[in-house]
## 1
Amino acid sequence: MTDEQLPKASEDGPFFRWQIGILTLNGDALLQACLASIIEHTCHRKDWTVFVIDDGSEEQSLRALRQIVPFFEMEAQERGCDGPMFQMAEGRANLGIPDRWNHLAMSEWTAGFQAQTPYLAFLNNDVQVCPGWLEALEYAIKNNDAGMVCLNQKPTSIHEGGEGVTVRPASSGFCFATTRTIYETVGPFDANYFNFFEDKDWGIRCWRKGLGCFDIPPEIDHKVGETFRQNERVLRPDMRMKLSRRLFRQKYADGLEDVRQAIESWAKRPFKYLLDGKELECYPQKADMEVLDVV
């Protein structure tokens, strides 16, 4: 997707090229580390805005969030990065990941930014980004038929010929990017999944619209499962994983052979990516197709 195909900025408002959405649930320390890494590695550009959405945290955590978000906006300004805006929405109820992602992409909460932010990044609060992260995501989306692009998490196994780029049925939802145009084409995340398989489902739907899913360098830090461990009583991950897997099987009971063939085809095509400021190209490594066998 080229710049010419992206929505144009509103004449009466700032142009924030990227909306960075961060989902949090009783994760004050995790969120602080996440925001600190964004400021550290993104303040060289001013075309981004941060929107933190709470998914039903306890009151003590909410009180902390009301201080954390404006604090980091001031931190960005003190670094001379006066473009970004930091906002927060209090969910007041635990509605799950896909519901909140939909709110970040297309809801009244972000209505004022939708014309100005053609690119969307979705982050868990247990992620810490690295140098070049936003540039890598933007380059991959613009230069490939990609609907969903995720950064690798440490440590990444560099396969021969793959150079750290992987084509897969669906990218993981801990740190991925797309555009509003693609979101509108593919449709909203299926809120029935609540906390699991929502990224896999959306990835499958990307493939069926002719848009691939890829994991790319650079590597970022991801405290895998930390949010679930901190909120096990509220999220009940074991039960919801089983329910989501069952829903996925039912939804795609007719099979996913078309997606498998699309992935096989893409593995034979060169993928363009950006790493350390260098424009590179490789044939992506195929990921495990296990999710396609779930049904």
## 2
Amino acid sequence: MFKPYQTAGGQQAYYFRRIFHIVSLTFLPWFYFIFLIQKSSFLMSNSIYFFIALVICATPLEVIRLYFGHLIFGMREYEKHTISGAYWGGLSFTLVFLLAPSPPLGLGIIWCVAWVDPLLGVLREKKVSLCLTLCAGLFLSFSIWEGISFYYELSRLEIAILAVTAVLCELPTLKWVDDCALMMLIPLAITLLWKIA
């Protein structure tokens, strides 16, 4: 029985959403931060306009979707009358691309969303205890940041704060803002405050 997921399109849509989430949020930031920034400033600047244009185009479409209470394949039932996770994710994703102080910080922020968010979501669906869920999330989050620090210089304090923040941002169950957005926007805000300080 597919009751827990409450996804428009059923079980196939649920798995499609999970796989699309992981694949897109793993490879798009890698392509942008590692390939475009290092290979071509022209492509980098124009790709930013592309993502901004997508958000601008998606905004009226999201408003119309909300007005009619329509669910697109893969959306969750509660998104019928609230801003979708896909819209929140696209907006936050674009802001990280635009504002991240450095490629490794932007990459780490998005990769934590790509992998930690679905892991914690699945563990919650399986009714795993909060303690084990937190431990698994923290282990994966630290592993991602440690892996990035192997190639880029990051302080132990940066790794610790950003790894823990990613997990804590996923825990609240809020209907008015998607947890993926919190996992990107709050760490992004922290990195920007570091830059100002």
## 3
Amino acid sequence: MKPFKTYLDEDQTAQYIFAYGTLRRHQRNYYEFDLDKKLTYIYTAVLRGYKMYDLGGYPCIVETGNNNDKVVGDLFKVKDQSAVEAVRKLELNAGYIEKEIEMNDYKVITFIYEKVPENPVLIPSGSWKEK
């Protein structure tokens, strides 16, 4: 049995977001966009097959396909659709693309870079909070 499946099964039409940087709980954009009121924290999750890079004041992730690479982030259930629109606007304007991923058999949206940025600073832990 997969963890949290019962909780996630409550509403199959719900939308989920995986946040790994400044949108994670207790990070600056989490409060800036009122995500504490618009999203429900599910749990801290690990996304395999991605590497995280420090872009200065915020990170990006890039798909590698290597299961040894990982990114740590928070999985949220959307309570207020305006949160998705605000996050989408922020991320797309910063050069990210929206990607639907599978996490514990559920479709989740996150935002990634298509390729490694110039002069990348790898975050080996894969966690923005532990960089």
## 4
Amino acid sequence: MALCEPMLNQSVGAQLCIGGLLIVPMAGCGGTSSSNVSQVSCMSFSVSGACNDLSDVGSLVSSMCAAGPAPTGTGGVIADGTYVLSAVVGYDCGDAGGLPPQSQTIVISNGCVQGVARVAGQTISTTQSFTVSGNEITASVVCPPGQTGTQAPTFTATASSLTVFYPSPFDQVEVYSRH
């Protein structure tokens, strides 16, 4: 698996790193709606050529640094809905300091997650399908197409938040508040 900087969206060979997550294409998932989500489909893309038509409704979040390895998530039920990045903690940041300020909005529905992020002056949209096993999430890219690679971070989900724990080499925790 190639390494990439968490939250800095970049291509690494044939791989794409978005939010520290290396993602791989696979068949899309369904498109049901929930009370907070209108028809999210892993296979529907924007007319503009972006991976989705989401607007980033979050504010820029500055990352914090903490000592030691990233903790491990405890699992839970990931509820469909809209989530906004509310905190980022990097572990063992060293002299590099934290990541640049960033914002993210994600919409989760029926095993699909569509996201839009602003970081380092760029706006990036993605669509991924995901599966959950215990406290691990495995995400696979649907858009942008043609990308390869996977990572299975752990997570903790509550009724009001989703926290994603990326282990080494990323050592990062992202907290999303449900809206």
